[in-house]
Amino acid sequence: MSRLIGSIACLAIPSVLARLARAPPDFGIIDIVTEADHDRHPGADGQRIFSEQRPQLMGIAYRMLGSVADAEDVVRDAFLRWRHADRSRINNPAAWLTRIVTKLCVRLLESAARHQGYVGIWLPEPVPTADGALGPLATIAEQETLSFGLLRLLELLSSQERATFVLYEAFGYRHREIGRILDISEQSSRQLLHRARSQLATARRHPHPFDRHDHRQLVRRFLAAARQGDVATLRELLAADAQSWVDGNGRTTARAPILGRENTADYWAAIARRPEATSVDLARTEFNGRPGLLARRRSRVIAAASFDLGPTGIESIWLVVNPDKLGHLSGP
User: Fold this and answer.
1) Of 70, 100, 127, 259, which one's alpha carbon is 20 to 30 angstroms from that of 312?
2) Alpha-carbon distance 144 to 153, whole Å?
3) Taking the model in full, what pTM does it have?
4) How confident is residue 134, by pLDDT bands cut at 50, 70 and 90?
5) Are 188 and 177 in contact (CB under 8 A)?
6) 196-229 pLDDT tens trace
7) Per-residue pLDDT for 263 more than 50?
8) With contact defined as beta carbons under 8 Å apart, do 148 and 316 qualify?
9) CA distance 144 to 318
10) CA distance readout (Å), 105 to 57, 59, 69, 76, 229
11) Which of 301, 323, 298 lies closest to 247, judged by CA?
12) Separation of alpha carbons 264 and 244, rounded Å
């Protein structure tokens, strides 16, 4: 099994993702910090409130940005604003913090070409979700908003379309609330959501309910077949329109999606035969709302794979081997 992922990870090289310089946005009176507020400490209650809201704030920021590092930066910035704010003027801390995080994300999305210079396929950073660190994942819609496929497609949207879609679909905000967060009318929020859904509908596969046990079993069978070079079984497990996407920022042979059952099966069987895959340990885990697989060499994560299922088999395989997107999975 270790032969399957390890050889692809060997194709990855570090990339330098430029951090986007950004000035603090003007959020109006809700974000005013007076001189007297500057040294205010959040105190036990302030820390508790922020800690309670942090999963949702991280969930919003990650879905907006597709980057764990950028999401953590945004949430850290929000905490500093929370720490310095006059909280006696804040009646609804959850709404205040959601507004701040959303505005910071919109500002970041609009500040530069985020993936300029990236070579090959760009995928979001894989992130663990079993502990609920990115908010609720109880429904198919909530799970889908964290999937690699949808997060990749969200890059097609404007910053406000993306914010509206994430707040509405993933967190259940109504249009009146979204309007207050984005400083737009309720009707504008409805129009933004309609445009977002229309753009996504042309490229988005319909979310398919899946049983986690069945999902794990199917992935296990796929990996076993790939390790053995059993192309016939691989084709049996894949949907006819299966796709495989590999993000390595230039150090991978697959710089475009691998399309079709036969091509996908042949690709993964060939990878499994590479000798460098033998030194890799595999561990099953959950990230981005799906059962997934992590490949490690000497305790360092070198690849992460996720599988999307459809009614006729595995529809999409997402593989991240860019080391800049995997460091947070290796732990301290």
Assistant:
1) 127
2) 12
3) 0.80
4) low
5) no
6) 999 998 766 665 666 667 777 888 888 788 878 8
7) yes
8) yes
9) 14
10) 11, 12, 12, 12, 44
11) 323
12) 6
What does the H/E/C string look like for the chain? Answer: CHHHHHHHHCCCCCCCCCCCCCCCCCCHHHHCCCCCCCCCCCHHHHHHHHHHHHHHHHHHHHHHHCCHHHHHHHHHHHHHHHHHCCHHHCCCHHHHHHHHHHHHHHHHHHHCCCCCCCCCCCCCCCCECCCCCCCCCCCHHHHHCCCHHHHHHHHHCCHHHHHHHHHHHHHCCCHHHHHHHHCCCHHHHHHHHHHHHHHHHCCCCCCCCCCHHHHHHHHHHHHHHHHCCCHHHHHHHEEEEEEEEEECCCCCCCCCCEECHHHHHHHHHHHHCCHHHHHCEEEEEEECCEEEEEEEECCEEEEEEEEEEECCEEEEEEEECCHHHCHHHCCC
Paired with 320 in beta bridges are 247, 304
Per the structure block, which two tokens stand in for 37? 């507020």
Angle at 282 between CA 276 and CA 288, to 5 degrees: 120
Which residue type does 254 have? Answer: A
Residue 19 CA to residue 111 CA, distance in Å, equals 11
Q: Please say if the pLDDT value at position 38 is more than 70.
A: no
Q: Are strands 313-320 and 238-247 parallel, antiparallel or unpaired?
A: parallel
**Rounded distance between C-alpha atoms, residue 207 and residue 124, angstroms:** 18
Distance CA 12, CA 151 (A): 22
Going from the C-alpha of 61 to that of each of 134, 156, 161, 186, 285, the distances in angstroms are 9, 17, 14, 22, 22
Tokens (6 digits) for 48 = 């508790």
Can you give the length of the chain in residues? Answer: 332
* Spatial contact of 101 and 61, defined as CB atoms under 8 Å apart: yes
Cα dihedral angle (292, 206, 71, 48), rounded to 10 degrees?
A: -90
Across the range 167-177, mean pLDDT stands at: 94
Judge contact between 330 and 324, C-beta under 8 A.
no
Give the closest residue to 27 by CA, choosing from 84, 109, 107, 103: 103
Which of 295, 299, 225, 212 is closest to 264 using CA atoms? Answer: 225
